[in-house]
Recover the amino acids of this structure.
């Protein structure tokens, strides 16, 4: 009797267990179906996100070029400063913050100040004034520079013009050649002389660049050495002089523009403490050539920007 009741109990337990198990499977299946339908009746399982694929950070070639250029300038113990940018791209660098005497590169600044005083803006200079301006830029005539310096009211006029031109670090002097500036400020000047949004009219910008493109052959050194072979689109103004406060050593400066197929470079190289003008020219030309070589290589894969 006990054995029979035990067998009946076992059969009932098995039937009950199977029933509960099937019910659980059904419930689970139902919940999974509702979860797939997105009705919020139960938690749904989202696929595990794919593991991120490791990537190598992009190499900033322009930044690497800047680092090398700054190291190059630092090796000259503060006696050299450079600034350059590509108006058709993103390549740009400034290295060296020292303020140098301008010598004759200030003549471009004097001409810009003279043109800003014209009323109405863009009015052509008179024939005598144009002749003085050409002599001042093309052959770096000092007497012509002094005459035009007086017409802009000297240092006061230059200071006022530089506010309009966006220069921040140029300090005028009663003697124009002793005006001091930085490479960064000379780049700002060149930008103002070439930018459609600058304070000068298109006619004035064309006029200044035209004179800088006509500089006599014996003065077409400096940044011009960085041009590509056969490129005539070079606009330059150089300055050179001895510095009494530096024991009569030479300062040599060069500013300008080099237009190429894929680039429109503005560049300024300032330097001093040279034993001779020839040595100063060598240092400036080597620096200009190195800077543009680095920036050209760093931007070789970039397409020209618009604007």
């Amino acid at each position: 009797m006990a054995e029979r009741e035990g067998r009946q109990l076992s059969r009932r337990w098995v039937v009950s267990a199977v029933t509960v198990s099937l019910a659980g499977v059904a419930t689970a299946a139902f919940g999974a179906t509702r979860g797939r339908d997105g009705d919020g009746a139960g938690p749904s399982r989202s696929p595990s996100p794919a593991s991120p694929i490791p990537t190598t950070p992009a190499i900033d070639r322009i930044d690497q070029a800047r680092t090398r250029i700054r190291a190059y300038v630092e090796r000259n113990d503060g006696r050299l400063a450079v600034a350059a940018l590509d108006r058709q791209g993103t390549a740009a660098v400034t290295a060296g913050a020292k303020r140098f005497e301008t010598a004759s590169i200030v003549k471009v600044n004097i001409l810009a100040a003279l043109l800003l005083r014209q009323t109405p803006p863009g009015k052509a200079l008179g024939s005598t004034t144009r002749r003085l301006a050409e002599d001042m830029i093309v052959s770096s005539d000092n007497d012509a520079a002094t005459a035009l310096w007086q017409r802009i009211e000297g240092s006061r006029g230059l200071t006022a013009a530089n506010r309009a031109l966006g220069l921040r670090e140029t300090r005028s002097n009663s003697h124009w050649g002793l005006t001091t500036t930085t490479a960064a400020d000379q780049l700002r000047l060149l930008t103002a002389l070439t930018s459609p949004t600058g304070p000068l009219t298109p006619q004035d910008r064309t006029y200044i660049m035209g004179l800088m493109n006509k500089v006599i052959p014996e003065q077409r050194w400096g940044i011009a050495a960085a041009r590509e072979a056969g490129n005539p689109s070079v606009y330059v103004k150089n300055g050179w002089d001895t510095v009494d406060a530096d024991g009569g050593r030479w300062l040599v400066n060069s500013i300008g523009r080099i237009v190429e197929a894929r680039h429109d470079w503005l560049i300024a190289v300032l330097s001093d403490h040279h034993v001779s003008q020839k040595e100063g020219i060598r240092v400036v030309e080597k620096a200009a050539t190195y800077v543009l070589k680095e920036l050209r290589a760093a931007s070789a894969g970039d397409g020209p920007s618009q604007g």
